[in-house]
Amino acid sequence: MNLTILTANQKTVAFIGMVLYMALVVTVGLIYSKRNKSTEDFFLGGRSLGPWVTAMSAEASDMSSWLLMGLPGLAYLTGFASAGWTAIGLAVGTWFNWRFVAYRLRTYSHVAGNAITLPDFFSNRFHDSRRIIMTISAVIIFFFFIIYTSSGFAALGKLFNSLFGFDYTLMMVIGTIVVVIYTIVGGFLAESTTDFMQGTLMFFSLIVILVAGVLEAGGLGAVGASIESLDGFGSLFTSHNRATGAGSAVSFLEIASSMAWGLGYFGMPHVLLRFMAIRDAGELTRSRRIAMVWVLVSLAAAVCIGVVGVAAVPSLLDGAAAGELSSRSETIFIVMTQLLANYSGILVVLVGVILSGILAATMSTSDSQLLVTASAVSQNFFKGVLKKDATDKQILWVSRITIILVAIIGAILAADPNSSIFGIVSYAWAGFGAAFGPLMLFSLFWKRTTLVGAIAGMAGGFAAVVVWKNLIAPLGGAWGIYELLPAFLFSALCIVVASLLSPRPSQQILEEFEHIAAGKAE
Questions:
Q1: Would you list the DSSP string of 133-185?
Q2: Domains, the chain, ordered by start
Q3: CB contact at 8 A, 11 and 4
Q4: Where are the beta strands (DSSP E) in 209-291?
Q5: What's the Cα-to-Cα distance from 257 to each of 238, 303, 433, rounded to whole Å?
Q6: N or C: which end of the chain has fewer CB within 10 A?
Q7: Residue 269 pLDDT > 50, yes or no?
């Protein structure tokens, strides 16, 4: 599938720009490698992030290539409804996470044994001496981050395949190797710094391509006419089916299902880690404002790019089989970026820069996921369970081996070029949201939560996602809702019931909770 519209010379210039960008992020990793003196430095950057890096790296690592390919692709395929409600849910979830979780987690994670990973925090929060929570958390993180990481690798393959005609598998593997190198070498500070760069590039790219798409379509009037020609495409309450050409009403349950994406934020390890890493909890208010501007503009632009794309590139799905519609739609950002070259030859340099935004989006999430997975396996399972006297050097070696292993498995899962980025991400997002989201909220805001309740909620959320996704959702109808919604509610129910049926937490645990609830910093 070669959807490039650039000339051979233009493609060469764009390719060189992207290679230089990849070299830049590897260089950043090498620079920061000298600052990794301990596991706290490698996994949490020594709690030294400033407000700008905290905000931008949190959002860039969160949104990934899904923002530039998955969300615009969904909007291009079905219209405003599904993509729009998903974006609204994500924006609301982002605000609640920054407003209510960030500060309390930053202070609580320090009080609870100076936790440097999410499993550390949960284990220390409930004084889990047998490390049961730590073990279950590590397994869940390993399982779902392998799936999540594969979506980023698939995006790399699609980018180079659709733009340059290069072999999908080869380019996916090369991109994977680059991400692994600078993550292994640089650790948390390297990936947070590059995430800041990449978040800025993603923000810039979305705005430029949206404007270029409107101009290419012939103005807003032409865009409106194109939208009206597709039944149900332009409404938040109807959805368009490209295969049949018909529109259908969106039910309240479908809206709730799409907005449920916002619930996932409360359980995203790579986002929550940024809250724990900021140098001063008092700077989180500033970070929240920066993050919300980035999120609102980026999500709106991503959805609008997909909608504008039907007027700017109406032929994108021509000749595509039913099974290829979703995958082909997810290249709309790539194709629209190339339209810049129609206005001036010199703009091909800008094409290379903007297409690096997809690299940026992919790398900013993949590096975070690899690092969180490595910390879960090495810090929480290897040291926490298997070898409690492990040295920092041993932990770092296990971390690096884990990063390589996860990358290899993720690349294998991404081998199918027709896999949907949106579909892959939605499954992993649901897994983390249901397994860790309710537990995070109850851990921070309900002192009656017990160790038994925490284990029940985490295991119940994980199981509910897997069962609903694979056994219940295929039944269709009302059962076809996004698995995160029922699994999140089930996990919360498990926490409440199991906590009330088990003995109250110890006095020490209650005192720690009340210390944080009273607003006392570390």
A1: HHHHHHHHHHHHHHHHHHHHHHHHHHHHHHHH---HHHHHHHHHHHHHHHHHH
A2: 8-30+39-420 (1.20.1730.10)
A3: yes
A4: 238-240, 247-249
A5: 15, 18, 13
A6: C
A7: yes
Cα 326 to Cα 183: distance, rounded to the nearest angstrom: 31
SS in 3 state form for 439-504? HHHHHHHCCCCCHHHHHHHHHHHHHHHHHHHHHHHHHCHHHHCCCHHHHHHHHHHHHHHHHHHCCC
What's the rounded Cα separation, in Å, for the pair 369 and 503? 36
Cα–Cα distance list, 126 to 11, 108, 506, 517 (Å):
55, 12, 9, 16
**Helix, coil or strand: residue 313:** coil
Tokens found for residue 395: 């932990």
pTM over 0.70, yes/no? yes
CA distance 45 to 147: 26
Cα–Cα separations (whole angstroms), residue 451 to 127, 352, 443, 458, 499? 8, 51, 10, 11, 8
* One-letter amino acid for residue 155 of the chain: A
Q: Which of 115, 25, 140, 18 is nearest to 444 (CA)?
A: 115
Q: How far is CA 9 from CA 105, 309, 339, 345, 349, in A?
A: 51, 25, 15, 10, 11
Phi, psi dihedrals of residue 128, rounded to the nearest 5°? -85, 85
Reduced to 3 states (helix: H, G, I; strand: E, B; else coil), residue 81 is helix
Q: What is the pLDDT of residues 418-474, one digit of tens each?
A: 766 667 778 888 999 999 999 999 999 999 999 999 999 999 999 999 999 999 999
